[in-house]
Amino acid sequence: MNPVLKLLMENNRLTPAQMAQVLGQPEAEVTRQLDELKAQGIFLGWRPVLNLAKEETGVVRAVIEVKIRPERGGGFNRLAERIARFDEVDSCYLNSGGYDLLVFVSGPSLQKVASFVSERLSTIDGVLSTATHFMLRTYKEHGIFMDQPEEEHGQLKISP
What we know:
Number of domains: 2
Structural class: alpha+beta
Strand order of the largest sheet: 2-3-1-4
CATH topology of the largest domain: Alpha-Beta Plaits
Order of helices and strands: HHHEHEEHEEE
Radius of gyration: 20 Å
Helix content: 25-40%
Shape: globular
């Protein structure tokens, strides 16, 4: 595996200069590898991890389980891509199991998210059912704990 990619997976908060130092490579080489990963469509960009619960305006987030009917000649892809294009949709995943798509959405209020689901998502031809779960509190996201000092972010202690 590309060492820069491996480092990104372990700690995406490092700058290219910090990655170069960890890998013992010149920063220009790390930047070249990042550019190569971008050209290959593997590295798509940097994204901050935000604790929106501390933001006064707030954002309502929900996870929606969606059952869909596969289309002839397109399977799940066309419908999944259509759903993923909505501005409210943050992420969309094809799953195995009791439902087909796992869709993460956000909006300014509970009512706006509920309205998106009932008026726009569930009315799409091919959507068989939805189950919406509103996210009430985030404890950990992308490996980062939300409400703990950084020094407490260790592994669980093992007791005899």
